[in-house]
TrEMBL record:
The keyword Nucleotidyltransferase applies. It catalyses: RNA(n) + a ribonucleoside 5'-triphosphate = RNA(n+1) + diphosphate. The keyword Transferase applies. Keywords: DNA-directed RNA polymerase, Nucleotidyltransferase, Transcription, Transferase. InterPro entries: DNA-dir_RNA_pol_bsu_ext_1_sf, DNA-dir_RNA_pol_bsu_external_1, DNA-dir_RNA_pol_su2, RNA_pol_bsu_protrusion, RNA_pol_Rpb2_2, RNA_pol_Rpb2_2_sf, RNA_pol_Rpb2_3. This is DNA-directed RNA polymerase. It is an enzyme of class 2 (transferase).
C-alpha cells in the first residue's frame, strides 16, 4: 500500500514486487525526434546523426568540371510561427523554418599545371523548408490534425545464414545460404547448389562462382588456399618422406607407417588411429617428424607453386599429388614442399574443388566476369569493371551497412572492424565464405530469422531522416545542373538551392506515408498505445499478403520486449504489435528489457537492460518465479 502526494491511499494488488519505476511511455517518440533535430545543441557540438548526418552525406556538391563546390556549414531551426494549440485552432501545421548555412567556392584551374586556386567564396544562410515539430505528447500537428508516426519493426542490416530447405517435409540435401543486407545498397547472396559448389549472386542477378569474387578482391589462388586450408610441410629423406609433427592436427588421423622413438621402440603402430593417449606418448618422446608413405598424401594438393633452381615452376599450387610429381621434385633436388592439410575425416575440399574448376585466373579477368554478369550486353573495359565493383560495396555514397549492420557482421563473423567502417571489407566476404562452408560441414549453426536480435525498430526520427535524404538527393541533381548551365561566378547559394524536392518529401512523409496515422483519440490509453505500437508493415518492411505464419508468431525472444497478447485480429495479426511497459530501445534500434541480477543464488535489486542478442549468453528466469524472503 502506498500513499500518493495528496494522502490518498493506493492499493497495490500485483504479485511481483516492482523494482523499476514506470518509464516515460512516449520516450521512444520524443527521444528519436530529438536525436533527429538536435535542436538545442550548438552547431559545432552536434553529433553526426539525424539532420547533421544527412547534410554531411549529401554535401559538398561539386559541378561536373569540379571548378565550383557547394559546402555545408551548419543548420539552424527558427522559432515556430504558432504554438501547437494555435496550429490546431488555425488548422495549420506546427512547424519551424529550417535554415542552412552553405558556402559556394569557385576555383580557377591552371591549364598547364592543373593546380586549383580559389577565385571566390560566398557564404549565405538559405531557407530550405518548414520542418514539423513534435508536441510534448509525442504527436505532430499537420493541417490542424494530430498525427502519430508508428515505429517500424524491420529486418536489421547485417548478415544472415539460413537453410533454404527448412520447412520442407522431404529433404535429400540441405542447401545453405548466406545474405549480407546493407542499410542502403546492393544485396549479396552466397549459396550452395546440390553439387556443393558455392555461388554468389549480387542483387539477385545471375550467379557467379565464389572464387571469382575472391579473385576480384585481389586474392590469388595461393592466397585463397592458404586462407581456408592449413598447410603441412613434407621433407624428402634418404629413407623416403617425413612430415612435421603438429600435436594440434594429429588426433584422429591414421598413419600408414609405424612411428618409432630414437631407441626404435614403436609408439604408434601402422594404420592405427592416433588417440589423445598416443599423442601424449609422441610429445613425451620429443618426436619432431612423422614418417609417411605416398598413400598418406595421395589425396592432398600442392599448397604453393614450386620452382626449380632457375626459377621455372615445376609444380603449380592446387595440383593433386601423384608419384610422377614426387619424382619430378626429387629430380630437381627439392628438399621440402608444402601440401594442403585437407583431412578426409574432419574437413573437405569444397573450396579447393571450386578453384580447380574456375576458369578465371587473374583479378582483371574476375572483374570483367562480374561486369558481364551484372551488365550483360554492355562493352566491358577494365576501368569500367573496376569502377562498378568498387561502387557496389566499397563506396560510402552507394553502400551503407550503418553502425548496426557493422555491429551485426562483427558479432556473427567474430571480427573487430571499427563500427565507423560502414562499407564492406574484403575480410567480411572471406569470413562469410568460411562460416557458410563450416555450416555445410556441420561445424556452425544457421540463424533463426524471427529472433528479435535480427529485427530492429525504426522510430520516427530515422524514418523521417530517410525521407529527407531522398529529398536532398533530388535537390543535389538540380543544384549540379544549375551549376553547369549558368555562369557560376554570378550566382549566389540562394540561386542554386531549390528546396521544393525537400519540402515535397517532408509533406509526403507526414501526409501519405503508410506509417503516419491519425492519432487514436478514443481515450488517453488508446493514445499511448498508438504511440508505442510496432508495425512490421510499411516501406522496406513486410507485405501482409506475403507474410508467413512464422513472422507473425510469438517468439521466445519477445519475452519482456513485445506484448504477446495485444495484436489486431484479421489480416494484420502478429504484424502489428506493442512494446511492453518496461521495454526501451537502445542506440542501435534493438529492444531492451530490464532484468534483475542474481548473485550467490539471491535476487538483487540491481537492474540490467539487455537486448535479445546480449541475453543469449545468460540464463534467464521468468519474472513470476516464486521467491522467498
Amino acid at each position: 500500500m502506498t500513499k500518493s502526494s495528496n494522502s490518498i491511499e493506493r492499493l497495490n494488488f500485483s504479485k511481483i514486487r516492482q523494482v523499476v519505476d514506470l518509464p516515460d511511455l512516449i520516450e521512444v517518440q520524443k527521444e528519436s525526434y530529438a536525436q533527429l533535430l538536435q535542436e538545442h545543441v550548438p552547431s559545432h557540438e552536434r553529433l553526426e546523426k539525424g539532420l547533421e548526418q544527412v547534410f554531411r552525406e549529401v554535401f559538398p556538391i561539386t559541378d561536373f568540371n569540379e571548378t565550383s563546390i557547394l559546402e555545408y556549414v551548419s543548420y539552424a531551426l527558427d522559432k515556430a510561427k504558432y504554438t501547437a494549440s494555435e496550429a490546431i485552432q488555425r488548422k495549420t501545421t506546427y512547424a519551424a523554418p529550417l535554415r542552412v548555412k552553405v558556402r559556394l567556392v569557385n576555383y580557377d584551374i591552371d591549364e598547364e599545371t592543373n593546380e586549383k586556386s580559389v577565385l571566390s567564396a560566398k557564404e549565405a544562410e538559405v531557407y530550405l523548408c518548414d520542418i514539423p515539430l513534435m508536441t510534448e505528447r509525442g504527436t505532430f500537428v499537420i493541417n490542424g490534425v494530430e498525427r502519430v508516426v508508428v515505429n517500424q519493426l524491420h529486418r536489421s542490416p547485417g548478415i544472415f545464414f539460413e537453410d533454404a530447405t527448412a520447412g520442407k517435409s522431404v529433404v535429400e540435401k540441405h542447401l545453405y545460404s548466406a545474405r549480407i543486407i546493407p542499410y542502403r545498397g546492393s544485396w549479396i547472396d552466397f549459396e550452395f547448389d546440390a553439387k556443393n559448389v558455392m555461388y554468389v549472386r549480387i542483387d539477385k542477378k545471375r550467379k557467379i562462382p565464389v572464387t571469382v569474387l575472391l579473385k576480384a578482391l585481389g586474392l590469388d589462388e595461393q592466397k585463397i588456399l592458404g586462407t581456408y586450408y592449413g598447410t603441412e610441410t613434407i621433407h624428402f629423406t634418404d629413407d623416403g618422406m617425413v612430415k612435421d609433427f603438429d600435436p594440434e592436427k594429429i588426433i584422429g588421423r591414421r598413419n600408414s607407417c609405424e612411428i618409432k622413438d630414437e631407441t626404435g621402440e614403436i609408439l604408434v603402430k601402422a594404420n592405427y588411429k592416433i588417440t589423445k593417449a598416443a599423442r601424449k606418448r609422441l610429445v613425451k618422446a620429443g618426436i619432431q617428424y612423422i614418417p609417411i608413405n605416398i598413400e598418406d598424401i595421395e589425396e592432398t594438393y600442392i599448397a604453393e607453386d614450386i620452382a626449380d633452381q632457375e626459377g621455372e615452376i615445376i609444380a603449380e599450387s592446387n595440383t593433386p599429388i601423384s608419384e610422377e610429381i614426387l619424382e619430378r621434385l626429387k629430380d630437381n633436388d627439392i628438399e621440402s614442399f608444402k601440401v594442403l592439410s585437407i583431412d578426409r575425416q574432419s574437413s573437405d575440399s569444397a573450396i579447393r574443388d571450386i578453384l580447380a574448376s574456375d576458369k578465371v585466373k587473374t583479378q582483371e579477368e574476375a572483374l570483367l566476369e562480374i561486369y558481364k554478369k551484372l551488365r550483360p550486353g554492355e562493352p566491358a573495359t577494365l576501368e569500367t569493371a573496376q569502377n562498378l565493383f568498387d561502387n557496389l560495396f566499397f563506396n560510402e555514397k552507394r553502400y551503407d551497412l550503418s553502425r548496426v549492420g557493422r555491429l551485426k557482421i562483427n558479432k556473427r563473423l567474430k571480427l573487430n572492424t571499427p563500427l565507423d567502417t560502414t562499407t564492406l571489407t574484403p575480410e567480411d566476404i572471406v569470413e562469410t565464405v568460411r562460416v557458410l562452408d563450416n555450416i555445410r560441414q556441420g561445424l556452425d549453426k544457421v540463424d533463426d530469422i524471427d529472433h528479435l536480435g535480427h529485427r530492429r525498430v525504426r522510430a520516427v526520427g530515422e524514418q523521417l531522416q530517410n525521407h529527407i535524404r531522398i529529398g536532398l538527393t533530388r535537390m543535389e541533381k538540380t543544384v549540379k545542373e544549375r551549376m553547369s548551365i549558368q555562369d557560376i561566378e554570378e550566382l549566389s547559394p540562394q540561386d542554386l538551392l531549390n528546396a521544393k524536392p525537400l519540402s515535397a518529401s517532408i509533406k509526403e512523409f507526414f501526409g501519405s506515408y503508410q506509417l503516419s496515422q491519425f492519432m487514436d483519440q478514443t481515450n488517453p490509453l488508446s493514445e499511448v498505445t498508438n504511440k508505442r505500437r510496432l508495425s512490421a508493415l510499411g516501406p522496406g518492411g513486410l507485405n501482409r499478403e506475403r507474410a508467413g505464419f512464422e513472422v507473425r508468431d510469438v517468439h521466445t525472444s519477445h519475452y519482456g520486449r513485445i506484448c504477446p497478447i495485444e495484436t489486431p485480429e484479421g489480416p494484420n495479426i502478429g504484424l502489428i504489435t506493442s512494446l511492453t511497459t518496461f521495454a526501451r530501445i537502445n542506440e542501435f534500434g534493438f529492444i531492451e528489457t530490464p532484468y534483475r541480477k542474481v548473485e550467490n543464488n539471491r535476487v538483487t535489486d540491481d537492474v540490467v537492460y539487455m537486448s535479445a542478442i546480449e541475453e543469449e549468453d545468460f540464463c534467464i528466469a521468468q519474472a513470476n518465479a516464486p521467491l522467498d524472503e
